[in-house]
Specification:
The complex is a heterodimer of chains A (499) and B (308). By secondary structure, chain A is an alpha+beta fold. Helices cover 30% and strands 21% of the residues of chain A. The termini of chain A are far apart. Chain B has 13 helices and no strands. The longest helix of chain B is centred in the N-terminal third of the chain and has 33 residues. The mean pLDDT of chain B is 89. Classes of the chains: A alpha+beta (499), B mainly alpha (308). Chains A and B meet through helix 1, helix 7, strand 7 and strand 9 of A and helix 1, helix 5 and helix 13 of B.
Chain lengths: 499, 308
Amino acid sequence: MGCGGVRSSVVDELLEVDGSPRPIARELIALLHRIGIDEVRERQRVSDLEILTMGISFTVYSDGENIDRAWPFDVIPRLIDGDEWSIVERGLAQRLRALNHFIDDVYNDRRIISDGVFPAGLLDDSANYRPECQGVHPKFGVWAHISGSDLVRAGDGQLYVLEDNLRVPSGVSYVLENRAVAKRTFPELFQRYRIRPVDAYTDELNRLLASLAPDDRNDPCIAVLTPGIFNSAYFEHSFLAQRMGAELVEGQDLVVGDDDCVYMRTIQGLERVDVIYRRIDDLFIDPEAFLPDSMLGVAGLMRAWKAGNVGIANAPGAGVADDKVVYAWVPDMIRYYLGEEPLIPNVPTYRCMYDDEREHVLANLGDLVLKPANESGGYGIVIGNRASADELEAVAASIRADPRNWVAQPILDLSTAPTLVDDGIEPRHLDLRPFILTGEHSYVTAGGLTRVALTKGSLIVNSSQGGGSKDTWIVDTNDPSGHQPAQAQNQAQNQSAGI
Amino acid sequence: MALLSRVADRMYWAARYVERAEDSARVLRAYGDVLADLPTTSSRWSPLVSISGSDVKLPPVVGSDESQVAQFLMADREHSNSIVNAVEHCRENLRTCREVLPREAWQTVNDLSIYVRGAAVTSVERRRRDRFLSRVIDESRRLDGVLQSTMTRDEVFEMWRLGRYIERADMTTRVLGVRAAALLAQPPGSVDEFAEVQWMGVLRSLSALQMYQRATRGPIDGPAVVRFLLFDHRFPRSVAGCLAEMRTSILRLPEYSTVLGAVEAVDRQLRRSRPAADDGAVLDAAMDEVQSALARLDTVMHEQYVVH
């Protein structure tokens, strides 16, 4: 390890240690050299303009008048080899199958606890455990239908799962929009590379949601439930509803009848809703069952769901497995429920609830990332080597006071990729959020949302805090015999989408 | 597929607002054009404020000065019917029903909104004004073109059309109530050598000059202009023409009987105004009656499709 915070072991996604392009990135880097920095900037300018005109935006609170901001997009794509991705794809599907077994188990038989694989008592303290969900059996035994797991590549070149987002993960609309923009930014590369298309996602999502309808409902009515225009992901809610031809509803548009069925208010009166893709945290979806003063939800929704009259994705209560302490057991869950070895490793995680692990953490605070269990969006996280002595002392006190609520992980050297910044093209740290659909079958996006920290040295990739995004290309390099070339597929999709 | 009441309401209002922006732009463009032909241009700008809405109170700082009125109608953020606000209201309404719109339609509105926000203030000056107003008019028409050519004729589409035609009929009555009434009210026998220019201005402010000439094959005659703009149902900006389009849309909506009844009430009010075409003293009041009937139609639609 170097000194002064400089680390020697950072991997770059596109470049070898000596700065030469990795084999997969040769065409891309050659093109960047050929067209030169001015032309790269020009293409960036055109794509920024396109994003503004297409209204691809995200919402920032308390930003005065202009709360709707243009989506930050870096034109230089991030490339991943198709062979590596095929393993990641299977690993994510595997992970989500195990997590869903776990959620279904904890709300029903709790075999994993009686078999001694998972500690008793841990769940009852979880902020995301919903006792109201006990005894419910959603279709296919699946609770977390739509999830986004954050992947990072560490200094050893290996991709790790950093966390699983099982509640209302967002970002998939930007995966699709980034691709649409990238195709126009680097059309010549789409002709040379075989890049897996991403457009199928909304179709797959539509199919999954339709499969969650009550069995007796043909041609089910699907609604996306949004908290409304002020939510940071409103663009995405609207985008998904549009792509699926689903209704985009707010709580005020829905009502639960005396028959425990869900209806929406239309110009013709009430119409039955069969499946709800909710983009509202479960504590807010039903004031009757959870927070009584929630204005966002629909009174009686839980009743309707428990009666089997409406499918809800993700199921209420799914967040119980979206907990940084529960995370530490996911490899064990995969072995326990599926009898398989995990295909993608977890980041090693110390659980402060165990005396020996806690003592190790307290003795090595400066070398660890300290995470509270139930916060999302990076809140409350302390990075040991960047924290002051006072901050470390405070976090040590918090850990001693509430050890169940803390985990610690080694500080990872997140990989970088070349990114266009004011000074030219420089390496910036990034992560990757693929989206996984789980129902009767599994589906994983080809790639996902690459988020990049635009500030030099920064590890913060959130778009609300100055992060950007890149298009992610899963590139197939092996013999394409028997396959339609990827570029032909792309063109066909362009035409059918009317672009 | 069912149409959510909330979405119906927002489509309807989006259409009204973009039509309002387009109509205001057209009136302003034609007015500036006419005044350029008149000998003196002082203190003639205030009627435009009345056209833009009887409920609007001109702030005391705004006089009849051209640039103040143009600023008020184009770029004033405090004035809810200014072009910049009307475009913004249209965008905000459509932003919450993007899922039912063809994508290009949203892009058109978004594009217009970006342009208007950036250019409104600097376009008040007469030299740049025409370009701005023409862009607003063109984009509004482009939006209709996108919907016309790519949107399924479902209830969403009909809500859009209803918003467009109610707003358009309303604007036609406002132009007649303010401008035509004033022109007709000139004392009998007084010879205004600029009357024809001004009547042409009235027609231009509704993009009606050429069609009027084709329909009447005669000279510009005040009462004939009023009758054309009220009753020639073949002309799409006449009040009768707008009512015919509303009927077509309403018949495609569910449970329409009370709404259709409200359209017929507007029509009765319109026919009652026929004698006013020759008489400036009563034209303004007659137009007010038609506007009230249009407002009742709006209320009936709201009760039938939104709050029921």
